[in-house]
Automatic annotation (TrEMBL):
SUPFAM superfamilies xref list: alpha/beta-Hydrolases
PANTHER family: AB HYDROLASE-1 DOMAIN-CONTAINING PROTEIN-RELATED, ESTERASE_LIPASE_THIOESTERASE DOMAIN-CONTAINING PROTEIN
GO molecular function: catalytic activity
InterPro entries hit by this protein: AB_hydrolase_1 (IPR000073), AB_hydrolase_fold (IPR029058), Sec-Metab_Biosynth_Hydrolase (IPR052897)
The name this protein goes by in its record: Pimeloyl-ACP methyl ester carboxylesterase
Gene3D superfamilies xref list: alpha/beta hydrolase
Domain AB hydrolase-1: 6-221
Length: 227
C-alpha cells in the first residue's frame, strides 16, 4: 500500500458498505481504504449523536499515525471538516463529494422531518433532477430499501469548530451534480464560508449524480487515488 490511508465517510442514510465498490478499486490501485460505518447508521444505535459520529471518524484517523485523506460525502462533508479541525496535523487532505462543510454553530443536517426520533429517507421527490438522474428505478428501490434512518441526535447536532489550522488543510471538492464553475462561484461569493477561508481548494468534476460511490465507483476511486 502507498500513501496515506483514505478514510471514507458516507452521507445520510448510508453505512460503510456504500463504499464497497470504491474500496475495491482503491485496493487494486495500492491504496489503503477505510470505510467508516457511523454510529447510528448501521450499528443499530438509534440514540447516537453527532459527537459519536465525529469520534468514529477520529478513531479511524488516529489509527494511522502516518496521516489520512478524509473523504466526506454529502452531509458528511461536515464530518470530514470536523476531523480536519480536530486533527489538523494528522489529516493530510479533505475530499468533499457533493457537499460543503457547515459552519460553527450550525445544525449538522436538519433537512427533513424527524419521525419517532430518527430522520428517515424522505423518498425521491426531494432529489428529482440531477441528483438522482443516473439511478434507474431498480437502483432507487434498492437504495430506499437499504436506507438507514439517521438519529435525531445526529441530524440536529450542532457543529463545533475550534481550530483555525483547519484552513491550512488542503481541500479537494469533487463536483457531481453541480459543476466546478458553479462551486467556484459559490466560494468566491462567500456562500460557503468555510471554503472561502480555506487556503488550498481544488475542484474536480465527475459526471454523475449525487451518489457517485454507487454509480461511478471506478471513476471516483481513480480521483481519490490521485488527489
Amino acid at each position: 500500500m502507498t500513501g496515506e490511508q483514505i478514510v471514507l465517510v458516507g452521507g445520510l442514510w448510508l453505512d460503510g458498505s456504500a463504499w464497497s465498490g470504491v474500496a475495491t478499486e482503491l485496493t487494486k490501485r495500492g491504496r489503503h481504504a477505510v470505510p467508516v460505518t457511523l454510529p447510528g447508521q448501521g450499528d443499530g444505535h438509534t440514540s447516537a449523536t453527532l459527537a459519536d459520529q465525529v469520534a468514529a471518524v477520529l478513531a479511524a484517523v488516529d489509527a494511522e499515525p502516518g496521516g489520512s485523506v478524509v473523504v466526506g460525502h454529502s452531509a458528511a462533508c461536515t464530518l470530514a471538516w470536523l476531523a480536519a479541525d480536530a486533527r489538523p496535523g494528522r489529516v493530510a487532505k479533505v475530499v468533499l463529494i457533493g457537499g460543503f462543510p457547515s459552519g460553527n454553530g450550525q445544525p449538522y443536517a436538519d433537512f427533513f422531518p424527524i419521525v419517532d426520533g430518527v430522520m428517515p429517507f424522505p423518498g425521491w421527490e426531494p432529489f428529482d433532477g440531477a441528483d438522482a438522474a443516473d439511478l434507474d428505478e431498480p437502483a432507487r428501490q434498492a437504495f430506499a430499501a437499504a436506507a438507514i434512518p439517521v438519529p435525531a441526535g445526529v441530524a440536529r447536532g450542532v457543529v463545533q469548530l475550534t481550530d483555525e489550522r483547519r484552513f491550512d488543510v488542503p481541500v479537494v471538492m469533487v463536483c457531481p451534480e453541480f459543476t466546478p464553475a458553479q462551486a467556484r462561484e459559490w466560494i468566491a461569493a462567500g456562500d460557503l464560508p468555510e471554503l472561502t477561508r480555506a487556503k488550498h481548494v481544488t475542484l474536480v468534476d465527475i459526471d454523475s449524480g449525487h451518489w457517485p460511490m454507487l454509480t461511478r465507483p471506478a471513476e471516483l476511486a481513480m480521483i481519490l487515488a490521485t488527489v
